[in-house]
Amino acid sequence: MKIEVKSWKDPVLLAAVAPLAVVMIAFFLVPLVMTAVLTFQTTQYYRLAWSWDLKIWTEVFSKPHYWTIMLRTVVMALVCVAICIAIAFPAAYALATRLKTFKTQIQILIIFAFLTDAVLKTFGWILILDKNGVANWLLMHVGFPPDALNLLFTPAGTMIGMVYNLVAYPMFTIYLSLVRIDRDLVLAAYDAGASRLRTFFEVTLPLSRPGLYSGAVLVFVLSLGAFLEPKVLGGGTAPLASELIRQSFETRVNWPLGAALTMVLIVTGALMLGLSSAFALRRRSAPGRPA
Amino acid sequence: MVSPIIDAAGIVKDYGSARALHGVSLQVGAGEFVALVGPSGCGKTTLLKILAGFEEPTDGRLEIEGKDMRGVPAASRPTRMVFQKLALFPHKTVADNIGFPLKLQKVPVAETNDRVRGMLDLMHLRPDYLQRYPAQLSGGEQQRVALARALVSRPGVLLLDEPMSALDAKLKKSLQAELKKLHRELGTSFVLVTHDLEEAMMLADRICVMHGGHVVQVGTPADIYYRPANMFVAGFIGETNFLPVDAVRAGNGAQVTSPLVPGAGAEIAAEHIAPSLSEKGTALLVRPESIRIVRNDATAAEWTLEGVVEEYFIKGSSTQYRIRVRGLEAAVIVDLAGSIVLPARVGETVRIGFDPTQAFLLSE
Amino acid sequence: MNAQRFRNALVDTLLVGTVVLLLLFFYAPIATLVAFSFTSSRVLTLPIESFSLAWYGELFSKPDFLPAVRNSAAVAAVSTLFATVLGTAGAVAWIRYRFRMQAAFRALTFAPLLFPQLLLGVVMLLWFSVLGSWLGFSNGLFTVIIGHVVYITPFALVVVAVQVYGFDETLEDAARDAGANGWQVFREVTFPLLWPGIFSAAIFAFLLSWGNFYISYSLAGTARTLPIFVYSGIAVGSSPIYPALATLNLVPALLLVVTAEVFRRRALKRQSSGNPAS
Predict the structure, then answer these.
(1) Which candidate in C169, C177, C194 is best for mutational testing of the B interface (most B CBs within 10 A)?
(2) Is the pLDDT assigned to residue B325 strictly greater than 70?
(3) C-beta separation of C165 from C214 below 8 A
(4) I need a labelling partner for A271 at 20 to 30 A (CA). Which of A59, A186, B36, B224 fits?
(5) Which residue of C has its CA nearest to B141?
(6) pLDDT tens across C173-225, in order?
(7) For chain A, which residues make up each domain, given as ranges?
(8) What is the reported pTM?
(9) What is the pLDDT of residues A231-269, one digit of tens each?
(10) How many folded domains does chain C comprise?
């Protein structure tokens, strides 16, 4: 591929880069900085007061209530990562290596489901998981006692919703890294005498690691902000960080608090992102491992 | 050459601090077929891109059809290019691909159609291919479409960037023959970049051998083969033998002796000496086909060496021997006319001989 | 040998089975919604006793419904336009150009993808509120549009980038060589070859914006888009009008996705097989 080195004085580069950069700086980077700044302010009589102190941070760090919910959020996120990867990997692998005939159709179906209105899909899950819902009706018809499943308004319900809304992300990233693997590498492993299983662990899995990592990180980071699922499917029984944030805005009208909680989540996500990319980089530069 | 269609002088091209071309000069006559040959990285493709207008030279002068090409974009040059990967537009039909240069020149539709059909005939492509897309054609057919697109606007110079490197050997041969015929029929100047010397020798009127950003030699195929400028050109042309010799200039010619052939000396005539001959590393270029195996019939003029047959290859019209001679680093390569009876076997000690006055004296 | 073959067949079946189960999982709530949209009953439980289209009528008689559709359509149309144009320009800068601070540009334009939408919404809400109190505006549809553009542009960028990545630049050289000027190269070669990717990106952007809840919810002020209409409705209680709405949503969306994908894939395939050597 031919790549053009461009100077910032080049009007073509400016035209391509500047509008997007301006939008992202003005409405993403600056708001982010603003959020960090707001955490050092306070509210008085439901109004923002510019005070520059650590009051909010002391509150956030000293209340065990927040810690419990933050911890629960992280644990839920990790469980969600595990489940999503466990589903996404074999599915992406099957899509990349089997199912040649229906590949396009299946991909379109997945993309379409991914793009459908999340609120409506979540509502669909209520209808399935409800005590009198579709799932229990089906189970009853194959011989289970009525009300066999009781998932709605439990953390399990929340988890189903989270996995449902996020599993497509690791599928995309893993699929992309799997199709990029040179088929000859797999054949070379067979040729060297490796069994299918051995080849999978020696060649396919290590080479699909970038997709695996990025998919896992995406699920983790996006899980931290799950709001619809705990609210609608979890019924508020085990609130996650998003609920704290909502309350601090809607109930308590305490912006600095909301901002601080938001920052905690962003920093958690960023830490995870940094850790995993450091891990991925170290692996890549390890001796004897092709980049 | 009365008035060259391409006149490039002192072309220098730098990429950052790396110099790809060190002052290259080249002239191409009207209607001439010139091949630029050399190993990868020698600068031949860079030179072609400068001719086409995709790269600006850092220094030097380029005239095409007598006009200075500085600042003239590719679109306005009298050159057209056939790309290495053909670069057929995948979203346009064969007809639209071939007719594209005419469309840009706002040639009337009726005339465009006529000329596209004419190109199709010239390239021996079936008329029903016009509405197909490039992906629906075979490699050889795509090749012809690419040629047709480049030739349809009747350019003064056709530039070809290794257009046959992706084809299989048999298809390549037949397209080479067609290309040569096309060149003769059209009278357009062709400049072909290739790393395949055999292709260059078959097709070109003149060959320009490049190495490390320099032009090493420009000449007819016979010049390049029989009178190479130095050991690089001689070695690039094909597997060959260099016998280290001591040379002393005698008039226009030279007197040579070799430590491997004690007591023998030979007079080399002026036309068998490379013009660029220097004192250092002089050697006799002895082509494999001019060596024979001698029994007891060595002539007085012949130099003979003793060696052991290391390997032989039956190539059909000839049989190639590799003979290990004490005192020589590389095995001596000998091509003998093919014969059902093998003159020597592996491991056998043989005596080989050649006439030094028919060899070519050159240096590193 | 036979045992080996059996094991391979088992693995194949399991792998294919995963995909089938995953598709069932993806479409379970969607199919449920479609089924319940035709019920005649008010309660959303199985079995469905009798069919009716009554709830579609009920949906349209809701006074909030059509304004929400209008708002969603306006937001989606404008956001799509901006996200597609910005994303296309960004994709070209990502893939084809090298320039100083490119790493920063990439990070800045990709980061919103790594943000939970809720947090993205909150962060922008805080900024717009501060800005609003300074400049004297309150949040409404235009802040939603800005939010959608920030969130959706990275998606559009990635979709177009795939097309740019598969783009063979010698085709542009070939056009130039054939006598095309800068504008002709763009019109005849660059744009037609990138168009399928841009079109897909636009469809992607439109549907992401149309169905977006989190960012709209944070930034809409008192305005309502369709997902907010649904959210506030189901917070009060289930009603078959929502399945009806979901079903109405589905058909045009499916058509759009299928057209865009078929279009894009055909072009990618043509592009990759157009050159025998590549």
Answers:
(1) C177
(2) yes
(3) no
(4) A59
(5) C276
(6) 999 999 898 889 989 998 988 888 899 899 889 989 998 998 999 898 888 89
(7) 60-285
(8) 0.79
(9) 888 887 788 888 888 888 887 778 888 889 999 999 999
(10) 1
Looking at chain B, the domain(s) classified CATH 2.40.50.140 span 239-362
Per-residue pLDDT tens digits for B242-262: 998 888 888 788 888 888 888
Contacts of A95 in chain C (CB under 8 A): 19
Contact residues, chain C, for A245 at CB < 8 Å = 118-119, 122
C chain contacts of residue B76, beta-carbon cutoff 8 Å:
179
Helix (H) or strand (E) holding B50: helix B44-52
Measured between CB atoms, which of C171, C176, C193 is closest to B73? C176
Amino acid identity of A286?
Answer: A
**Sheet containing strand B360-362, strands side by side:** B241-244, B283-286, B360-362
The interface predicted TM-score of the complex, written ipTM, equals: 0.85
CA distance to partner chain B, nearest, from residue C95 (Å): 20
Q: Is residue C115 part of a domain?
A: yes
CA dist A226 → A162, A164, A205, A232, C139 (Å): 7, 12, 29, 11, 23
CATH number of domain containing C98: 1.10.3720.10
CATH match of A60-285 with 1.10.3720.10: yes
Q: Which of C89, C129, C238 sits opposite A16 (nearest CB)?
A: C89
Evaluate whether residue C64 is within a structural domain: yes
> Per CATH, is B239-362 categorized as 3.10.129.10?
no
C190 CA: distance to closest CA in chain A (Å): 14
B contact chains, 3+ CB pairs < 8 A: C
Domain that holds residue C216: 56-273
Minimal CA separation from A105 to chain C, in Å: 9
Q: What is the DSSP string of B69-94?
A: -TT--GGGSSEEEEBTTB---TTS-H
Q: What is the CATH number of domain B6-231?
A: 3.40.50.300
Name the residue of chain C whose CA is nearest to B136's CA. Answer: C274
